[in-house]
Amino acid sequence: MGEAYEALMVQMRELDVIGQISGLLGWDQEVMMPPKAAAMRAEQLAWLSKEGHTRMTAPEVGELISAAESEVNGSEVEQGNIRIIRDSYDKATKKPTEFVEEKARHTSKSIVSWTEAREKNDFSIFRDDLAKMIDMSRQLAGYLGYEDNPYDALLDLYESGLCVAKLDPLFQGLRDSSVPLIKAVSELENKPDCSWVHKHPWPKASQEAFSQAISEAIGFDFQAGRRDESTHPFCGGSNPDDVRWTTRYDEKEPFGAIYGTMHETGHALYEQGRPRDLDFQPAGEANGLGVHESQSRLWENQVGRSLAFCEWSFPMWQEYFPANFEGVTPEMLWQAANQVEASLIRVEADEATYNLHVMIRYEIEKKLINGELEVDDLPDAWDDMYEEFLGVRSPTRTEGVLQDIHWSFGAFGYFPTYTLGNLYSAQLLQAAEKDIGSIDEQVRRGDFTPLLDWMRTHVHARGSILEPSDHIEEATGEQPKPDAFVAYLADKINALYGV
Ligand code: ZN
Asked: Which stretches of 247-304 are DSSP H helices?
């Protein structure tokens, strides 16, 4: 690559530094900042975001991109960089400035009406703002452009290259296998007794120490990152040398904190494993929401909720929580960490039912954006789908259509990335096992290195050089498919419940 490419990469370096500073300020806002600092912090973050946007959309950048594109074929890294920069530039410049401003204003208003509607269990308070948000999302799809379906333009915002044609078969495969499994489990009369979990409180200090120990054991480098507490757990920070994740603690039960720890550690390991020769380059970033979520769910679910992990970690549980573990076996721990039950709330759902919550949102979003479902029919359509696929019906709008914040800020197309994470994680684990042998055996003796090394090589070190679905194909030999996850879930439910 030539001069234009080099000049472009200088611009990208500065943008990356702006992103690193925002990351640190954002972490501080959630974890450390005194309450009175909120207004000034919002100014700081807004300035950085505006500065980044101005630099990204500068006409010189557009000219440099075109010039770099016409310079002769580069390496895969150079091609990856150009593809990502072109995509961000187009997405940032295709929307008229007035539209961006109007959407920002409407979002602030809409979050307020959603919050009030949710509190008062009254959909009508949110109805008009939601209807306008759907209109604006359709408008946005028009600005961004699409081939088959306006919803494709929105899906592509959260995972590059994602579209209805790719997602429909994935959700179809999931639905066909999960719905009967969940039904069978819900009809069981004798389920494992997990009442031991609630016999004693779970001291917060022990949960903190245990979180630290587990994160360290699976490979997080605390010389290049931190663990803290926050209301909404997340993984953030600045760069691979400064990765900050959080969890939260509940003295009534330990699983939210411990599995939250493994989830965020999974995100954090991905960030620490990014290719260092690509620092400051777009292709050196993690590869989108779906792949990121595959890394968190791998450690949280596939590893953390396995019987092998419960067996290995059992002596630690006993050491940190002696009173809670009297008379408890590793198998009882495993059963308690894996209770399958159809429920109303997505964020509280277990591994088996979770994807159906996402599938329902996907089907509804597709219809809303395509004008096949009217806003006034939405609340009942939501409840009907819950009844059909999960066998539960919400007694309130608060626990039904109003439960998630996403639509209030217009994030149509976001939900599916959660399920992609589950599918990718199972597909990656299957591929890893072919290379490194039985992961259960390794986990049972606390040897997490082979699995982490495999992910480092095939996922983390590859940055976002390839588009997500091609990245998955490179790592596993196949385009994303539901099969590995479907098989994993069927095995697990059979082992737990005998169905
Ligand atoms: Zn996550």
From this structure: 255-272, 288-297
Query: Is there a single domain that holds both residue 112 and residue 192?
Result: no
190 C-alpha to ligand 1 centroid (Å): 33
Token code pair at residue 407: 């639509």
Is residue 155 a part of any domain in this protein?
A: no
Per-residue pLDDT of the chain (499 residues; tens, 9 = 90+): 689 999 999 999 999 999 999 999 999 998 999 999 989 998 999 899 889 999 999 999 999 999 999 987 789 999 999 999 999 999 999 999 899 889 988 998 999 999 999 999 999 999 999 999 999 999 999 999 999 999 999 999 999 999 999 999 999 999 999 999 999 999 998 889 999 999 999 999 999 999 999 999 999 999 999 999 998 899 999 999 999 999 999 999 999 999 999 999 999 999 999 999 999 999 999 999 999 999 999 999 999 999 999 999 999 999 999 999 999 999 999 999 999 999 999 988 999 999 999 999 999 999 999 999 999 999 999 999 999 999 999 999 999 999 999 999 999 999 999 999 999 999 999 999 999 999 999 999 999 999 999 999 999 999 999 999 999 999 999 999 999 999 999 999 999 999 8
Distance 481 CA to ligand 1 centre (A): 20
Residues recognised as catalytic:
264
d(CA 464, CA 270): 12
Residues 384 and 453 in one domain: yes
Which tokens in the block code for residue 487?
């098989």
pTM above 0.85, yes or no: yes
Other CB atoms within a 10 A radius of the CB of residue 326 amount to 11
User: How many other CB atoms are found less than 10 A from the CB of residue 190?
Assistant: 7
Dist. CA 247–CA 219, nearest whole Å: 17
Under a CB-based contact definition with an 8 Å cutoff, are residues 282 and 464 in contact? Answer: yes
Structural domain that includes position 119: 3-145
Give me ligand 1 centre to Cα 244, in Å.
13
Residues 331, 185 share a domain: yes
- Residues 191 and 89 both lie in one domain: no
Q: Are residues 394 and 456 in the same domain?
A: yes
Q: How far is the CA of 374 from the centre of ligand 1 (A)?
A: 31
